[in-house]
C-alpha cells in the first residue's frame, strides 16, 4: 500500500473509533479500527509504523476531544486561531502514545502467536501512561467504550477500564493476526468466544451488596449559562434558580453541582444557605472555600455540606490551565480569562462524608476520570457523588462521554454514582454501570431517585490497575527475551 493511502486510512480509522464511545456507543467499532491499524502496519519497520500509529491517534483525538477548543475560545477568551492551534497541539501530544505502542510492536517483531497479546500489552501501557504523565489525560481510553451492554463490561470490576481495554485490544490483535499472519480461523474464533464468555460470566457476579435503608436523593441542574455565571449582576438569578429547585425537589440528600453559587462559601448570604439547607436531611453543594496553605489564604474547589463544618471535600486532582497553571506556563494567563483559575490542592486521601445516613465519597468534575485515585475514598463509602460544571464544553460530545466515564467508575468501584451538574448530564447510575435516570442536558430541573448504598469490595477496589499492568509488563519482557534470542 502506498504511504499516502496508508496514512489516510489510518486517520479515518482513528476518527471512526470515536463512534465506539458515547453518544454513539458502537462499542465493537474500536476493536475493528484497531485491527485495521494492525493490518496497516504489518511488515513495516518501526519508523513508518510509528508514523501510522501517530496519524491514527491524531484522527482519534481530533475527532474525540476537539471540544477542548470550546472551553479555550468560547469561554476562556482565547483568540480562535490560537485556541485551534492549542487544541491541535494537545491532540498531537496525545497521539504520541499510540505511535510509541506501534513502534515498539514492530521493533519487537513478535511471533504470530504472541503478536496479539503483545499489542494488547503495549496499547494498554500506552493508555495508562497517557493517563498518568503530566497530571494525565485518560479521556477516551479504549476501555471506556465498554460500558453495558458491551460484553466486555464484566471485566471492568475485576481489572478496571484498562482491563477491558486490554481484552478489546487483544481481540483486535486476533482479528488482525488471522488476516495478516494466517493465524488459524479455529484458534481465532475459540479465543474470541472465550474472551466474550469470560466477560459474560464475570458480568453475572455481584461483587458488592446493598446496605442500609432506601433513601431519596435529589440532583439539581440549574442550567446557568457559563458566559453569564460569573457576571455579578446575574448572581441573584443563580441563587434563586437553585433555591427554587431545592424547594421543588426535597429529599434525604439534595446535591447541587460544582460551584453552584459563584462566590466563596463564607460570602454567601446565610439566609439563603439556611433556606436551601431546610430542603433536605442533608444538602451537599459545590462551593469555593478558603483555606490556608503555607501561611497564605488559598481558594479550594470544594463540596460542602450545608450547616456542617465537619463535612467538606476539596478537589485534589486539578485541571491544568483551568484550576492551576503548570510551572513555566504563567504567560498563558494573558491569553485566557478563566475565573478563579489558581486553586489550592486538596489532600490526596480524604475520608467519605457522613451524609443522610450514608458514607459518601465525593469527587469533583473530571476527577472521576482517574479511577485508581478514587479507590481510597470508595473502599469505606456506600455512595459515590460527582459534582460537575461541564458548561465549559458547550453542547459537545464531552457531556455524554463524561457520563459514560462515570458509568465505568460505578462498575469499577461497585457503588452507585450520583452526578449533579450545571448543564448536563445529571444522572444516577447503578453499581453495574447502568443509568437509572438522567436529565436532558441544558434543562433546568431536578432528578429525584430512590436507592440504597452498597458495601463490599470489587477486585479492582482491592488491587487497582496493578494486575493488568503487571500482566502487560510480563508480556513485554517475554517478547523482549524472544527478540533477543531470535
From TrEMBL:
State a single Gene Ontology molecular function.
N-acyltransferase activity
Topology in membrane: Multi-pass membrane protein
Domain CN hydrolase residue range list:
220-453
> Which GO CC terms are listed, alphabetically?
plasma membrane
Q: Which UniProt keywords apply?
A: Acyltransferase, Cell membrane, Lipoprotein, Membrane, Transferase, Transmembrane, Transmembrane helix
Q: Does the keyword Membrane apply?
A: yes
Q: Where in the cell is it found?
A: Cell membrane
Its top-level enzyme class, in one word, is transferase
Specify the pathway. Answer: Protein modification; lipoprotein biosynthesis (N-acyl transfer)
So what EC number does this one have? 2.3.1.269
Please report a single Pfam family linked to this protein.
CN_hydrolase
Alphabetical GO biological process terms: lipoprotein biosynthetic process
Q: Which residues form a coiled coil?
A: none
Membrane-spanning segments: 12-39, 51-70, 82-105, 117-140, 152-176, 188-207, 460-481
InterPro entries on file: Apolipo_AcylTrfase, C-N_Hydrolase, C-N_Hydrolase_sf, LNT_N
Q: What function does this protein fulfil?
A: Catalyzes the phospholipid dependent N-acylation of the N-terminal cysteine of apolipoprotein, the last step in lipoprotein maturation.
Q: What is this protein called?
A: Apolipoprotein N-acyltransferase
In the UniProt record, the gene name given for this protein reads: lnt
Amino acid at each position: 500500500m502506498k504511504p499516502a493511502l496508508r496514512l489516510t486510512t489510518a486517520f479515518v480509522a482513528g476518527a471512526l473509533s470515536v463512534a465506539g464511545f458515547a453518544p454513539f456507543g458502537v462499542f465493537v467499532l474500536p476493536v475493528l479500527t484497531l485491527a485495521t491499524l494492525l493490518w496497516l502496519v504489518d511488515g513495516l519497520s518501526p519508523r513508518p509504523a510509528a508514523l501510522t500509529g501517530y496519524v491514527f491517534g491524531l484522527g482519534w483525538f481530533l475527532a474525540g476531544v476537539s471540544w477542548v477548543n470550546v472551553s479555550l475560545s468560547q469561554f476562556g477568551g482565547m483568540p480562535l486561531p490560537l485556541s485551534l492551534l492549542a487544541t491541535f497541539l494537545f491532540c498531537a501530544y496525545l497521539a504520541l502514545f499510540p505511535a510509541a505502542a506501534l513502534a515498539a510492536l514492530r521493533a519487537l517483531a513478535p511471533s504470530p502467536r504472541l503478536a496479539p497479546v503483545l499489542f494488547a500489552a503495549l496499547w494498554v501501557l500506552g493508555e495508562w501512561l497517557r493517563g498518568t504523565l503530566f497530571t494525565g489525560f485518560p479521556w477516551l481510553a479504549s476501555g471506556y467504550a465498554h460500558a453495558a451492554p458491551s460484553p466486555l463490561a464484566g471485566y471492568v470490576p475485576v481489572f478496571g477500564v484498562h482491563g477491558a481495554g486490554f481484552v478489546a485490544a487483544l481481540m483486535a490483535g486476533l482479528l488482525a493476526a488471522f488476516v495478516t499472519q494466517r493465524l488459524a480461523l479455529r484458534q481465532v474464533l475459540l479465543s474470541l468466544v472465550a474472551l466474550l464468555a469470560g466477560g459474560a460470566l464475570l458480568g453475572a457476579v455481584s461483587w458488592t451488596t446493598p446496605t442500609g435503608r432506601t433513601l431519596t436523593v435529589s440532583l439539581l441542574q440549574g442550567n446557568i449559562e457559563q458566559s453569564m455565571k460569573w457576571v455579578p449582576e446575574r448572581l441573584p438569578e443563580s441563587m434563586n434558580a437553585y433555591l427554587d429547585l431545592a424547594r421543588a425537589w426535597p429529599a434525604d440528600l439534595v446535591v447541587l453541582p460544582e460551584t453552584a453559587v459563584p462566590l466563596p462559601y463564607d460570602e454567601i448570604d446565610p439566609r439563603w444557605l439556611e433556606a436551601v439547607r431546610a430542603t433536605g436531611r442533608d444538602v451537599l453543594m459545590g462551593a469555593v472555600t478558603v483555606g490556608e496553605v503555607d501561611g497564605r489564604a488559598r481558594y479550594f474547589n470544594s463540596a460542602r455540606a450545608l450547616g456542617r463544618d465537619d463535612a467538606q471535600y476539596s478537589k485534589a486532582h486539578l485541571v491544568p490551565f483551568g484550576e492551576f497553571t503548570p510551572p513555566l506556563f504563567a504567560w498563558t494567563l494573558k491569553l485566557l480569562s478563566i475565573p478563579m483559575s489558581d486553586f489550592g490542592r486538596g489532600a490526596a486521601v480524604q475520608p467519605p462524608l457522613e451524609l443522610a445516613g450514608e458514607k459518601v465519597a465525593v469527587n469533583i468534575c473530571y476527577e472521576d476520570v482517574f479511577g485508581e485515585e478514587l479507590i481510597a475514598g470508595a473502599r469505606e463509602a456506600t455512595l459515590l457523588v460527582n459534582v460537575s460544571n461541564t458548561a465549559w464544553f458547550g453542547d459537545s460530545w464531552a457531556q455524554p462521554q463524561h457520563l459514560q466515564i462515570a458509568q465505568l467508575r460505578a462498575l469499577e468501584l461497585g457503588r452507585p454514582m450520583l452526578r449533579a451538574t450545571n448543564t448536563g448530564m445529571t444522572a444516577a447510575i447503578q453499581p453495574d454501570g447502568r443509568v437509572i435516570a438522567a436529565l436532558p442536558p441544558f434543562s433546568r430541573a431536578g432528578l429525584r431517585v430512590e436507592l440504597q448504598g452498597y458495601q463490599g469490595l470489587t477486585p479492582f477496589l482491592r488491587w487497582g490497575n496493578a494486575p493488568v499492568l503487571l500482566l502487560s509488563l510480563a508480556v513485554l519482557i517475554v517478547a523482549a527475551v524472544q527478540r533477543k534470542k531470535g
